[in-house]
Amino acid sequence: MARNKLSDLNNHLFEQLERLNDESLSYEDLEKEMKRQKSMSEVASNIIEINRISMDAMKLIAKGNIQAKDLPNEIDTVKQKQIGN
After folding, report:
1. Where residue 85 falls among pLDDT bands split at 50, 70, 90?
2. Per-residue H/E/C for the chain
3. What does the pLDDT look like over 55-81, one tens digit per residue?
């Protein structure tokens, strides 16, 4: 299973920006890249939101407001990091 990082997402988004800025693209190719960019943007937004939720959970744990074991199973990455230490 691939283990991508937010830095990988950042790189992909900048690569997409470079493709969109390519003046040698035909109109058809530009349309394809724009559709691709829209899909990538939607996925990127979801990834960012998931990471924001995980960060919020880690802040609550750090403040002592909750314990990692009390988090919903959907926030398993935070649980693994907190309980594994």
Report:
1. very low
2. CCCCCHHHHHHHHHHHHHHHCCCCCCHHHHHHHHHHHHHHHHHHHHHHHHHHHHHHHHHHHHHCCCCHHHCCHHHHHHHHHHHHC
3. 888 888 888 888 888 887 777 665 555
